[in-house]
Amino acid sequence: MDEFVLAGKSYRSRLIVGTGKYRDFEETRRAVEASGAEMVTVAVRRVNILHRNEPNLLEFLDPARYTILPNTAGCYTVEEAVRTARLAREAGIGSLVKLEVIGDQKTLFPDVPATIAAAEILVREGFSVLPYINDDPIAAKRLEELGCAAVMPLAAPIGSGLGIRNPYNIRIIVEHANVPVIVDAGVGAASDAAVAMELGCDAVLMNTAIAGARDPILMAEAMRQGVEAGRKSFLAGRIPRKLYATASSPLGDMIE
Amino acid sequence: MGPALYGLRVQITLNGESHEVDPGTTIAVLLDALQLRQLRFAIEINQEIVRRDQYPVRELKTGDRVEVISFVGGG
Description:
The complex is a heterodimer. Chain A is an alpha/beta fold. Helices cover 35% and strands 16% of the residues of chain A. Chain A binds chain B through residues 18-22, 25, 28, 41-49, 52-58, 63, 68, 70-71, 73, 83, 86-88, 90-93, 158-159, 185, 205-208, and chain B through 14-17, 34-44, 47, 49, 51, 67-75.
C-alpha cells in the first residue's frame, strides 16, 4: 500500500484540495468527493453576525471524515499569520496549519523570511506547520530544519494555472527533503498534477484548477486520476530520455 | 466612578461592528445571545484568544474588541 504520511497520519489520497471559489457548498462537497481528497484546506474568517444562521462549510465537509487544514491566506505579516493559526487551533480542528505569509498582492508570492519567522514561532507552539514557499531549495531546507511537517513549494503563482514553471528546482527540493514535499498552487490541468507526482513530490494541493474549471466535478475526477497516474509513473521508473530512436519491434526475421 | 454610572451599557466592537451589552455580560452570555450555528469557532478579545473555560467568567468591558471566527472556503 502506497501511503502518504503527513504529521503522523497516513492518507491514501495524495491530492489535497481547497474549498474556495465554488458556486455553493453543495458543489464544494461534490467536487471534494470526486477528487478523492482526504484533506481539505479552509480559510479563517469572521463569523457573519448578521447571517449567522446560514449554513456553513463544515456542515458539508465533516471534520470526522476529512482532515481540515486551515490556512493563513491573506496574511502579510508574521503577527497576522501566527494570530490566525492560533485562532484556527482554538476552534478545535487540530494543530495543522498551512502557513502563508504573502509578500505581494499582485503575484501572491510568499514573503520567505517572514514565513520562516512565523514557522519558528508556530513550531515552538506545537503546530504541524505546512509552509507555502517559492520553488526555492534553500528555503525548503531551512523550513525543514526548523521543524516544519512538510514543505509546499509553488508550481506557479496562486490561481495562475501555469503549471510547474521550474521542474528542476522542484526536483532538487524533492531530492534533498526529509519531509513530504507538496506542490501547492499554480496547477492548471491534470497533466500538471501528474508532472508534480512524476517529479517525486509526495502530494499536490490545488483549489482554482478545480473550482474554476467549466465542470469542477469532472476536473476533480481528472485531478484525482492525474495524481494517481503521476504517482504510479514515478514509482514505476521512467525510461531515460535519448536523442535517437530504439526500435520496438525485432530487427531480425524480416521478409525479403 | 459614582453610582450614577451604574447600569450604563457596555460598548464593545464585535467583528468590526459597534454593539452594546449589559454590564456583567460574559462571553458565555454573548454566545447564548448569538446562537451561532458554527460548531467550530474561536474567540479573541483585544487580540488575545479566550480559552473555552474562560467563557463563563470573562466579562465584556467597554472598548473590548471581540472577534468571533470560524472557517470558510479557501485554498
